[in-house]
Write a structure and sequence with these properties.
Elements: H1 2-16, H2 19-26, H3 30-44, E1 49-51, E2 56-58, H4 60-85, E3 92-98, H5 100-117, E4 121-127, E5 141-142, E6 154-161, E7 163-167, H6 169-175, E8 189-190, E9 197-201, E10 206-209, H7 220-228, E11 233-237, H8 238-246, E12 251-253, E13 257-258, E14 262-268, H9 275-287
Parallel strand pairs: 3-4, 3-5, 8-11
Antiparallel strand pairs: 1-2, 6-14, 7-11, 7-12, 9-10, 9-13
């Protein structure tokens, strides 16, 4: 049963595409890692890696074996974790990747409440607009504002945010207040992507508008600040814009029409979750508005 002993070594090499990196993570000599992978390949009768002087890549057999080994090791770790949790509250470092604005303006109070409820859990937060590589990066859970395109990842909807169109009073005084969605064609629109805007009214009618403007960015918070400074019309979550709307710093544009809801998802690589991740997901589900 030597291959059970060598599975963690194989998984670390596969995750980092490097024998040297696996040796550093496992605290083993490079020669030991190479020997144990060779032993594993001999016992299986298959080559698991293609090795060159520049890179290490999984073979087709290696990719299949990696999928099984990752699950087996996750189950083993979970079994140990569950026994530990019988004697103590969940603890450890919870590594979360999530968008900047969603974290700072929406999720922050939930994070602080969770930290009080589970003082043994510490956070390592990676604030980024991009979906983390959950296999290659040291991340327990990612929270993007869109479902993953990788069908092997597990996505759970955790929040649904109504979005609205906003602009500053100074901007609207100079450019006029749009009365219909098509009026946006003559306005500066602050966009995440260079694509048409889709708007819907309460009766279910939709309007697709080819908008343009000086700014496209991958950070909604920057576009929101540009709207506050009078540079155009922006999408933003209604919950997060309430203070500026109430203070008159922004105006709700085309209130009868709304962009699509923004949805947040919790992404993991498996449904077999250690206690620290499981309780965090449960807390998010209980304290955020779930998507339908």
């Amino acid at each position: 049963m030597n291959f059970f002993h060598n599975m963690p070594v194989f998984v670390e090499v596969a995750k980092g595409s490097s024998f040297r990196r696996a040796a550093q993570v496992l605290g083993l000599p490079n020669s030991t890692v190479s020997r144990r992978i060779a032993d594993l390949e001999r016992s299986l009768g298959l080559r698991l890696f293609n090795r060159t002087t520049r890179q290490v890549e999984l073979t087709e057999a290696g990719r299949r074996y990696f999928a099984h080994c990752s699950r087996i090791l996750a189950e083993a770790e979970l079994a140990h974790q569950e026994l530990s949790d019988l004697q103590a509250q969940p603890s450890g470092v919870l590594r979360v990747s999530l968008p900047v604005d969603f974290a700072v303006q929406y999720l922050r109070p939930v994070l602080t409440a969770f930290a009080k409820r589970y003082p043994g859990i510490r956070f390592d937060l990676d604030l980024t607009p991009n979906l983390a590589d959950l296999l290659g990066d040291p991340v327990d859970i990612a929270i993007p504002m869109a479902p993953p395109t990788d069908g092997h990842l597990i996505a759970r909807p955790i929040a649904r945010l109504q979005t609205i169109l906003v602009a500053s009073p100074d901007y609207l005084q100079g450019r006029g207040l749009p009365a219909l969605p098509q009026d946006l064609r003559s306005h500066d629109c602050l966009r995440m992507k260079d694509t048409p805007w889709l708007l819907s009214d309460q009766a279910g009618h939709t309007s697709v508008v080819d908008v343009s403007g000086a700014f496209i960015a991958n950070n909604i918070g920057l576009l929101y600040q540009l709207a506050l400074e009078g540079h155009g019309v922006a999408h933003y979550a209604a919950q997060l814009a309430q203070a500026d709307l109430a203070a008159g710093r922004l105006v709700h544009v085309l209130p009868q029409w709304s962009p699509p809801f923004a949805q947040a998802f919790a992404i993991t690589t498996t449904r077999l979750l250690p206690a620290k991740v499981r309780v965090f997901l449960e807390f998010l589900t209980q304290n955020l508005a779930p998507a339908p």
